[in-house]
Specification:
459 residues, mainly alpha, 15 helices, 80% helix, 0% strand
Length: 459
């Protein structure tokens, strides 16, 4: 076996006390939080820039971005097995396998990205089938086509950051994600408003800026991974012959995760369509509010990743007590952190709304919706962290069913009732979202508690 270089840092050692569990979780979660936030900042910048372009550009961007997000989330689920398998292999002392899992995950991500890109090229027809107006379908379809070109890049980037996070290297992904925002901001300004003699592209220009930025991010992170000082130890260039069957294992873990994430994403896409039925101004206000919710959710995703990696690492070490504590510590940290963030959103919701739009017709409902976002974000983050805990033990089928019940049996009908039938507008959409994520949190907490009562072995 290849020995660990003297300068290499060992992966998280087993924690002995609650304070050590908290410290180790935060040490991994914080860079992941900033990295995921960096990805969302790029989207937020695009949304803010188009909000100050044409009167309907935010609505066009929202309509095109929602279906793109659906296929992106599905692809993210398919490659999520990289985190689980690599962390379990590392915890078990089989570091050579980590690099192989990464490169096989890259192949899977590339295939998923190409498939997603082909689907998004039919953006106009998809939006028309969803009941959107011709105006929304035409311009939203242009946004989807521009985003399609970047799908392989973003999925391969996420597969690479998942590998690096699983071996305790979360900072490179964070640095690349944050630095990429400088590129994205410049490109948004150029493409949206038509600087340097280029035509003003509006919403589709913001989408094109995101696509170019994503390819730049992929080049940077793969360059880092290939130049990793411990690349031989982690099998970054180890032969793949005899290991291609691992793609099947990645799919066995990732397919239920993709389905679970797809349930949630399709439900939120349906919610965006409901908002579109309420009018362009309502759609713009909803997209702005859900974007703030998504920004808070990035904090939860950092804790989700840290919890998943720490649980999987404990499974690899056969540390049953450690995996239980890793899961519940992540859940507790989520409640404390997102409660504090919710208080900040509540008291600054008017100022936040002013950043997103200068349209008074959009501003008023946005302020109201942000008050609800401040409240529901805690439960939304909690269900995400608990999904990470169950993912760490490679339990995927039952959580998928629970996600399906929460988001389709509960959320979608309630969203339609509250927003359309009861007439609460976009506030009604957030009523349904809040009830569904609370239900998902309760379901998943019970599932994780039951799982950890028995002995769990690595995949």
């Amino acid at each position: 076996m290849t020995t660990l270089p003297a300068h290499a840092r060992p992966l998280r050692p087993p924690a002995r006390t609650l304070s050590e569990h908290v410290a180790l979780t935060f040490a991994l979660a914080l860079p992941v939080m900033f990295g995921r936030a960096g990805l969302l900042i790029a989207i937020t910048v695009a949304l803010v820039v188009v909000g100050h372009a044409g009167p309907n550009d935010q609505a066009y961007f929202a309509a095109g971005f929602a279906p793109h997000m659906l296929v992106l989330v599905f692809g993210m689920g398919l490659v999520a097995g990289v985190t689980v398998l690599s962390a379990q292999a590392n915890g078990a002392g089989n570091a050579q396998q980590c690099g192989r899992i990464w490169r096989l995950g890259l192949l899977l991500a590339a295939a998923c990205g190409i498939g997603a890109a082909v689907l998004l090229l039919w953006g106009r027809a998809i939006l028309q089938l969803a009941g959107q107006t011709d105006d929304i379908a035409i311009h939203g379809g242009e946004v989807m086509r521009a985003l399609a070109l970047g799908m392989p890049a973003i999925l391969m980037f996420l597969a690479t950051t998942s590998f690096l996070e699983s071996i305790g290297r979360p900072r490179p992904g964070m640095i690349v994600s944050l630095a990429a925002n400088l590129v994205n901001l410049a490109l948004c300004w150029i493409f949206v408003f038509g600087e340097f003699g280029l035509p003003a592209m509006g919403a589709s220009g913001a989408a094109l800026a995101l696509t170019v930025t994503r390819w730049c991010m992929l080049a940077a992170i793969i360059g880092y991974a290939l130049a990793l000082p411990e690349r031989d130890y982690y099998g970054v260039r180890a032969p793949l012959a005899g290991h291609y069957h691992t793609i099947g294992t990645l799919l066995r873990i990732g397919a239920p995760l993709a389905l679970a994430m797809g349930f949630e994403s399709v439900a939120f896409t349906a919610t965006t369509m409901f908002a579109g039925w309420l009018g362009n101004d309502a759609l713009a206000a909803y997209q702005d509010a859900i974007n703030v919710n998504a920004f808070v959710f990035m904090l939860a995703l950092g804790l989700q990743t840290a919890t998943s990696v720490r649980v999987a690492d404990a499974v690899g070490r056969n540390d049953q007590v450690g995996l239980r504590l890793a899961g519940w510590v992540g859940a507790g940290l989520n409640v404390g952190l997102l409660t504090a963030v919710g208080v900040v959103i509540w008291f600054s919701r008017d100022a936040i709304a002013a950043v997103f739009t200068s349209n008074p017709v959009v501003h008023a409902p946005l302020v109201s919706a942000l008050g609800l976002v401040a409240v529901i974000s805690v439960a939304d983050g909690l269900q995400a962290v608990l999904i990470g805990a169950t993912r760490g033990v490679a339990d995927t089928v039952v959580p998928t069913v629970l996600q399906g019940v929460s988001f389709w049996v509960i959320m979608v009908p309630l969203n339609y009732y509250f927003s359309v039938t009861a007439g609460f507008g976009i506030n009604g959409l957030f009523f349904g979202i809040g009830i569904s994520v609370l239900a998902a949190s309760l379901f998943l907490a019970v599932r994780f508690a039951l799982l950890t009562r028995r002995h769990i072995r690595p995949v």
